């Protein structure tokens, strides 16, 4: 079915969700659009959608192999993947291993300082409010998630962190911090919490282990240049750079 004929369910800053081919599924389309600072800075990173599709597919499959439940079903083409339809919990879980980003500003810590232990933080997913940081008290009081939901989300997040730190270290990358989203999936009247959204350089801070060079969206945020090359390098190290290389990752002009 052509993209124009499919029913659009939701459009976010980096992805579009379309109605899936069978009940309970969605098609997740990865855009080349890039935003930062709560949508104040906008741009395009050529080929980002293709690379993030490949990187997220690879990481979701590796996580499924160690028993992490995810919404991912399979990649459909260069920019789209089939996912299970879940009820997204409006809370981002942020996992921090090294001081970077807002943490350095809030506590006046030098960027790159290893944290004494992994820190877990939460943000309320709301663009109009700028995704404010929240506590477990806010989350449970306002009914965004139950205490049990949160326990499951944190347990899964820490397992994901342990696994991804090792996986990235194996290809010479330091997993500084990252954010995850979860959803509720109903199967046979049973609800389980599953990993949703994506895992890519859009939502992870990845630094080269030897040089501390940034290999993620911070290159776009901070005008460091060579943004496309950084995403390509992450895909190359993970072994998922599209076969033809950078040539085949120009986005369809009508969608950009």
**CATH homologous superfamily classification of the largest domain:** ATP-grasp fold, B domain
| Percent strand | 25-35%
CATH topology of the largest domain: D-amino Acid Aminotransferase, Chain A, domain 1
Helix content: 25-40%
Total beta strand runs: 14
Order of helices and strands: EEEEEHEEEEHEEHHEEEHH
Instruction: Note the overall shape.
Output: globular
Mean pLDDT: 93
Name of the CATH first level of the largest domain: Alpha Beta
Query: What is the CATH architecture assignment of the largest domain?
Result: 2-Layer Sandwich
Uncertain segments are 252-256
**Main sheet: strands, sense, barrel:** 7 strands, antiparallel
List the helices and strands and how they pair.
Layout: E1 8-11, E2 15-19, E3 25-30, E4 33-36, E5 41-44, H1 48-65, E6 72-75, E7 80-84, E8 87-88, E9 91-98, H2 102-107, E10 114-124, E11 133-134, H3 136-141, H4 147-169, E12 173-187, E13 190-196, E14 204-208, H5 218-221, H6 227-238
Antiparallel strand pairs: 1-2, 2-3, 3-7, 4-5, 6-7, 8-12, 9-10, 9-12, 10-11, 12-13, 12-14
Helix pairs in contact: 1-6
